[in-house]
Amino acid sequence: QVQLVESGGGLVQPGGSLRLSCAASGVIFSNYVMGWYRQAPGKQRVLVAAIVRGEKTDYTGSVQGRFTISADNAKNTVYLQMNSLKPEDTAVYYCNAHPVLGASRESDYWGQGTQVTVSP
User: Fold this and answer.
1) Measured between alpha carbons, how far is 7 from 19 in angstroms, rounded to an integer?
2) Which tens digit of pLDDT belongs to each residue from 79-118?
């Protein structure tokens, strides 16, 4: 079975940094697209970045150059390094695992989410 557990969220000042971690149990990274999503209050959940078989992609233009997704295969952990944080980055951040052969979102696994708040 697959289990995703996020950690690393918290309260930071604008311009600060956070590193989110997603501990992925039961996941072989070569078989999954691993992604970070976020959902701000009253907004849709959106994809932030994804990594599959070592290839990284930033999907949200507002985080380009500021956020970096990475994976540590030995630790089965996916990270999201967030720098130069802005108030508009405030959201619940979710870890996601999507089977590479899956065509439906129904196949996805989700973590419980971790809150990131950027405020003075």
Assistant:
1) 9
2) 999 999 999 999 999 999 999 887 788 889 999 999 999 9
